[in-house]
Design goal:
It is globular, with a radius of gyration of 14 Å. The chain has a single domain (5-88), classed as Hypothetical protein yqbg (Orthogonal Bundle), CATH 1.10.3230. It is mainly α and 97 residues long. The model has no long low-confidence stretch (mean pLDDT 82). The chain is built from 5 helices and no strands. The protein has helices at 5-12, 20-38, 47-62, 74-86, 92-96. Helix content is 63%, strand content 0%.
Length: 97
Amino acid sequence: MSLTLDEVKNFLRLDTSDDDTLLEIYISTAEEYVKSACGRQVDLDNPKAHTVMLMLVGDYYENRSPYGQAKYSQNVSTMLMQLQLETPQDTDDEVKK
């Protein structure tokens, strides 16, 4: 189950549709970031993965300036580390597909 636009807008407390296209891009980017950080086999339905993706989208949305902070929050970093440890790592054959 991927993040939905409505779920993200609720998380960010947004009522307008002004930034919907931008949020859709951030959702895709967050999913790819988690897959890249944890391996393609990561279960995006995992509550930790879901929470990390919400937090990443929130961070992307709130820190759009190129001069913002360079690192993610400690919560995101910690949960990504846990997901990395829980996820079987891709083999070279799987990466080539």
